[in-house]
Amino acid sequence: MTFPILSIIVFTPIAAGLLILLIPAERKTAIRVAALTAATIDLGLSLVAYVSYDMAAGGYQMAEKIPWIPQLGVSYHVAVDGMNLPLVLLTGVVMFTGVLISWGIDDRPREFFAFLFILATGVFGVFVAQDLFQLFFFYEIAVFPMYLLIAIWGWQVTREYAAMKLTLYLFIGSVVALVGGLALYYTAGLRSFDLLELQQAAQAGAFSGTVSLFGAAVPFQVFWFPVVFFGFAVLGGIFPLHNWSPDGHVAAPTAVSMFHAGVLMKLGAFAALRVGIMLLPEGARYWSGLILVLATVNVVYGAFIAMVQTDFKYVIGFSSVSHMGLVMLGFATLNREGLTGAGLQMFSHGVMTALFFAVVGMVYDRAHTREIPKLGGFAKVMPLVAVAFIVGGLVSMGMPGFSGFVAEFPIFMGLWQRQPVIALIAAIAIVVTAAYIMRVIGRVFFGAMPAEFEGHIGPITRKDKLALVILAGILILIGIYPAVMAPMVQSGADAVLRLFGGA
Amino acid sequence: MTVPLFEPWMVQALLPEILLLVLALLVLLVDAVWHGRSRTWLGWFTAIGLVATLVAGIVFSRPHADQGMIFGGMLRDDWLAFTFRILFLFSAAITALLTTGVKGVRQKGEFYALLVVATLGMNLMAAAADLVMLYLAIETTSIPLYVLAGFLKQDDKSTESGLKYFLFGALTSTVMLYGFSLLYGLAGGTNLYLLAELLRAGEVSPSVLAGVLILVLVGFGFKISMVPFHFWSPDVYEGAPTPITAFVSTASKAAGFAVLVRVLLAAFPDVQAYWAPMLSILAVLTMTIGNLLALAQRNIKRLLAYSSVAHAGYVLIGLVSLSVFGVTSVVFYLAAYMVSNLAAFAVVILFARASGSDEIKEYAGLSRRSPGLALALMVALLSLAGMPPLAGFVGKLYVFAAAVESGLIWLAVVGVLNSIIGLYYYLTVLKVVYLYRSEYEDKAIGVPRTYALALGLCVLAIIVIGTLSAPWLAWATQAASSLF
Known about the structure:
The complex is a heterodimer.
Chain A: H1 5-22, H2 28-52, E1 61-69, E2 74-80, H3 85-101, H4 109-128, H5 132-153, H6 159-188, H7 195-203, E3 210-213, E4 216-219, H8 220-236, H9 244-251, H10 254-279, H11 281-308, H12 312-333, H13 336-367, H14 378-381, H15 383-397, H16 403-418, H17 420-445, H18 462-480, H19 486-498
Antiparallel strand pairs in A: 1-2, 3-4
Helix pairs in contact in A: 1-2, 1-4, 2-3, 2-4, 3-4, 3-10, 3-13, 3-18, 4-5, 4-10, 5-6, 5-10, 6-8, 6-9, 8-10, 8-11, 9-10, 9-12, 10-11, 10-12, 10-13, 11-12, 11-17, 12-13, 12-16, 12-17, 13-15, 13-16, 13-18, 13-19, 15-17, 15-18, 16-17, 16-18
Chain B: H1 8-13, H2 15-33, H3 41-60, E1 69-70, E2 75-76, H4 79-99, H5 109-127, H6 131-149, H7 156-187, H8 192-201, H9 206-224, H10 232-239, H11 242-267, H12 272-295, H13 300-320, H14 324-355, H15 366-369, H16 371-385, H17 391-405, H18 409-435, H19 449-467, H20 470-481
Antiparallel strand pairs in B: 1-2
């Protein structure tokens, strides 16, 4: 038997989380060291998995399949391909840097890391899942701990409200998608939840029947696609179901915001792609027009709202809404450029937004305010933080030489082929993005520092520095040398396209 | 079909019930002769007896492959009865353990004896194959439970609980008995498995039969706390000694369902077209009303009471799916619900021992007072809410899957929307536990070993059923298959 690398990646966090719960609460350093060890193992293993993926062979690799509930055809089935492997790496990176950033948490760190790690297991589990049941199983595990993480350790003003809102939104989305998933399962008639088998059945026409809706015969895929797609896309932040996300981002503690915007939103987008688009291609084709429109609203509206925020963290929160819109736009093009761009954008935005939230957290911890007009001159006292934020900002604007360009350029290419008008409208957002990023950089990091902060702003720790360097480094690396990721994502996109009869 | 009245091997099938009778008498005897000061071991004695019965039942009383009826058609020896028997005995054993620390009841031998007798009645309910036997079994279960609910004579709420339970129970049971008598009149027989054929031969009109069925359902609806027969449950749950609340909400409800599925599927297949839609609507009402009323509760026992009403609604979804998988999901869901609810009540008892209160707001700061207890409560409530990797998630999934399989997609949708309301109120409890502060945070809550054992068992079961559900599903399928 080969080394079960994916399973170890998936279960290391939860095992570590349970072990951490056994450490006495007052031994905080031991708790942190244990957390960092687990995060290091996971980052290392996801890097190993990433590097050892055989590009020449392509397809799903490192597969493991064990029967789980054989009566229903449920198996524990994990595998990676060009689409999900970068996301596994992303999770490893965000987990590692998130632990570094959270070193200073002093209120019940044991529970904090335990919940964070349970969440991490859920995230990894969804990304590598090749079984629909397993995907739902881990999806819920990923969603729930967020409630406690935000409600307990979040920003006191809004945390209760934001945590409840987020949990209910996401839970509604996922259970609605679950009903859709069950309908797919029974309609396929295979007594199997295996995604690859369902995919083959879909290709063979298992989902080409009709559903009777108030007497009218609606094609099966047209009926069920929106149920599944939008159920998951809630977590991807699609307009008008994005409302939970800025509130949630802002209320969450730094590491959780990083996880939340950086990884969890990709979870929704990825599941919408994996279950919605890949199992129901005809439905996807039918509804792609609507998704294009909604995602364009995301992109443009998110950018404009970010522009008028005075709270630093809300700016980043709405920028996530805007950037996730680009991912959805890429999906909806249903062509090679668009899907490749969307895959790259998921990774790039994940790292970028983790970087942003890390910076916001560092500024807030020192200034105790996030009101942009009250801040200023932080570049002098924390130069590395300023540089990191500028790198993130350039990525966000889609500047060539940074990963944002590598991701957004193909999306716009694909969009142009599909619908030039949408491409033009969405392009407005890039200008607006540049404007709000410039504004934040100018106001927060440059200019005069308000008198009350003079001499009170301490330097950041070495662990914080390491986290920033890793995140910024990845963004630059992909920007100047896209070949480390683009071909892999492209192979994943090609696999999706084959389901649409093209390649 | 002639079933011999008695053959020696039938004793073996009835062994657990015989052992329970012996146990009840032993408990009374031991109680009478022992006058020591520390008598909490009576609970241990009962629990060990129940576990021994459980083991004996599993080892010696597996259903005979080819034998259905025993004792002249009074009882049925099948996997459904077998499976429910295990659930009841498990629940009763945990209840006995949970009683060992409750003031006012822990040292009373008659309390434990009544618990054992009620369990005996439940076993017979699950196995009953004849209307007469069924009625006797239901009463054998109910009467001890009335007494147990009102056991705390000094406590007004407990007295009220017992009386209310009794009045509701007596009334619904009378209506049910009237239904039974009409059935006998229409069919000329009392055996559940012959009833359908007799009714067919008598050419009873389906609408008359459906009317009679409604009378019968009143009694069953009371047992499972189905809307509109749920009014007793919040008051009874609140006032009864908490271990009894746990027992009534788990074992007694499961017993009601055991009877319900058997009677409906064995005796009334011909009028499915009447009762299946009716129960679908009642399922929707039960879920929705239970969940909505739970939202407004300030007392944790009342909250769990309304949530248990809602859970009866989810289980009904499985029943009206009218398939093997549907009944499987009923059995599975009840097992998952049972361990989760027992764990939740274990925490409630422990908390009340330390603080003397069941108010949700008093739970503030629990996660700082006793992190382990808070975690156990979280596991239990999240399982009830249907979160993976816990038992409740798989249970709900199976129930909804059964509905989708049978084409009842609308019912599955109502179910999932209801589970969101459920999540909301469970989260409001967890919010108090984890988020709010209190002045007692430095006072840890004592957890006696007995409770640690009971709670640990339930939590372990919640996780095991949730993650490795295949063997339990196989078992539930076997139980369900005996009805088809």
